[in-house]
Structures are given as structure tokens and as C-alpha cells.
Specification:
Distance between the termini: 60 Å
Helix content: 40-55%
Number of strands: 8
Structural class: mainly alpha
Number of domains: 1
Number of helices: 8
Strand content: 5-15%
Radius of gyration: 21 Å
Order of helices and strands: EEHHHHHEEEEHHEEH
Length: 293
């Protein structure tokens, strides 16, 4: 897949995915995930307060949802890509090195919802009100998080000659640097569709559309989050069909393609069920948080 000559127009990829800060190694992937969490939390706080909640309630729930989501995302990745960590010659401890990359959005959302449910119950905020408030922020977090894949030179589509093709280097995950030739030049694998960028832009557009629809229409409790499932998985399904990076398959299709399709159907069914209900909100002076035990 290596072209005979360097094309005139292409999107470059970094040759460095980490840097040293004293004894610590800082991964750009982790910084992108952190930036997504911060921006997503900011928008969630604004939207929950508009629904009658408080910033304290929103932050308390986020403090439950985020760690659950990170654990869930990692579990999904390790389970669906277990061959990367287990078997002859593999390092099982690598499954714990989350800072090197590898989070599955499906597991992150699933277990993050469990954390959000716990936080909502403790703060007296209706679960539907929180997830409706959080839906656009979650898309923003995903949009920013995808740029971690850019630093890692991963999540790309088929080879292409389009002007916005993405240059992909062979990366050494242990050093956080591109593998170099004997002459010292970074090794280029080829030029591919930047599906990480497509997904990032799709998430931004979907977040904007969710906010507009939520303002224009009185969507029922839980319906905004249902639309999040529909919008995100519709784009993700199409993008999975474009991707060419290694992945496990079922009946010839990538695992994530199957999951995206199933979640899309689920989201559509939920939206049809919930859209006519009363809009989600937090009652003023609602339930006090459960006392600590």
C-alpha cells in the first residue's frame, strides 16, 4: 500500500504520540479524552441547569458516570480485541494500560449509564433528565476524543487518492514515536480515508442538531438521548463500512458494524416510545441526596 512517491496533497499525521514530563509519559490520546470529558461536562452542566437542576447535581452525577464509562470502554475494547493482549507472545498487563489507547464507546456508554443512574438516584435528579441533558455533551466528548486516534495513527479507512487523504505512519506504541527507516525518515504505511476525522465532524454536527431539536420541540423524557443513539450509530455504521484498519469480524462484518446497527434499531424504537411523553426536567427543590451510609 506504500505509494511510489509522496502525493502533493494529504493530511499529515503526527510522528509523536507521547512526550516525557519528568518521570511521567504523557499520551496525547489521554489528553484528548480528558479534553472531551471537560467540554462534555461543561455542556451537560449548562443543559441540566436549564432543566431545573443545579451545577452541583450535574457534577456529582458526572463523577459517577465518567469512571464507570472509562472502565466500561476499556472492558469492551479488551473483550472484543482480546488477541492484542492474550495468547503466545502477548503481554496481558497491556490490557490495563489504558493510556496507550483503546476505549470502546459502546462499553463506555453502557457502563457510564450505570454510573449515571447511581449518581442520579443519590442526587434526586430524574435519570431521563440527566441523560437528555448529557446527550449533546457526550457527542462533543466523542468528537474531541477521536483526535487521540489521529495522534496514534489509527482508525482509518481504505486507501485513497483524494486531496484530504490521511498519511499513516508505522508507530511504536511503547515509545510513542513513528518507526524510522535506516535513513531516519518516519515509515509511512500509506494514505487512507481519515475516518477518525469524518466521525469527529459527524459528532459535532449531530450535537448541534440535537441541541436545535431539543430547543424547537418538546421532546419526551429520554427522547433526546434516544436521538443521540440514532444519530451517532447511523454515522458510525456507515464509517465502519469504510474502515480498513484491523478488526475482529462476525460473518464477514466488523463487530462494531453489528453493534452500531443493533443500537441504531434500539434507538429508533426508544424514540418512538418516548417522544410523546412529558419533557424531562428536575423539579425545583426536588429530592434530597441520599444520606451517606
Amino acid at each position: 500500500m506504500q505509494p511510489l512517491s509522496t502525493p502533493d496533497l494529504f493530511l499529515p499525521s503526527p510522528t509523536l504520540s507521547a512526550f516525557a514530563l519528568g518521570p511521567l509519559t504523557i499520551r496525547f490520546y489521554a489528553l484528548c479524552i480528558l479534553a472531551g470529558i471537560v467540554v462534555g461536562t461543561w455542556l451537560t452542566v449548562r443543559r441540566l441547569t436549564a432543566r431545573g437542576g443545579t451545577s452541583e447535581q450535574a457534577l456529582d452525577i458526572v463523577m459517577w458516570a465518567v469512571p464507570f464509562g472509562i472502565v466500561g470502554g476499556r472492558l469492551y475494547h479488551v473483550i472484543t480485541d482480546n488477541q492484542l493482549y492474550f495468547g503466545p507472545g502477548k503481554d496481558p498487563w497491556g490490557s490495563l494500560r489504558i493510556w496507550e489507547g483503546g476505549l470502546g464507546i459502546w462499553g463506555a456508554v453502557a457502563l457510564g449509564l450505570v454510573g449515571a443512574a447511581i449518581g442520579s438516584r443519590r442526587t434526586g435528579v430524574p435519570f431521563a433528565a440527566f441523560v437528555d441533558a448529557a446527550a449533546p455533551g457526550l457527542l462533543l466528548a466523542q468528537a474531541l476524543g477521536r483526535w487521540g486516534n489521529w495522534f496514534n495513527n489509527e482508525i482509518y479507512g481504505a486507501p485513497t487518492d483524494l486531496p484530504w487523504k490521511l498519511q499513516i505512519h508505522a508507530m511504536d506504541s511503547t515509545t510513542g514515536k513513528a518507526i524510522t527507516s535506516p535513513e531516519g525518515a518516519p515509515e509511512v504505511i500509506g494514505y487512507f480515508h481519515p475516518t477518525f476525522l469524518y466521525e469527529s465532524l459527524w459528532c459535532l454536527a449531530a450535537a448541534a442538531l440535537l441541541i436545535i431539536l431539543d430547543r424547537k420541540y418538546s421532546l419526551g423524557a429520554g427522547a433526546v438521548f434516544s436521538l443521540y443513539l440514532v444519530f451517532y450509530t447511523a454515522g458510525r455504521f456507515a464509517l465502519e463500512l469504510m474502515r480498513s484498519d484491523p478488526a475482529n469480524t462476525i460473518l464477514g462484518a466488523r463487530v462494531n458494524t453489528w453493534v452500531a446497527g443493533l443500537v441504531l434499531v434500539t434507538g429508533l424504537a426508544l424514540f418512538q416510545t418516548l417522544r410523546s411523553r412529558a419533557r424531562s426536567k428536575v423539579e425545583t427543590g426536588g429530592t434530597l441526596p441520599h444520606p451517606a451510609r
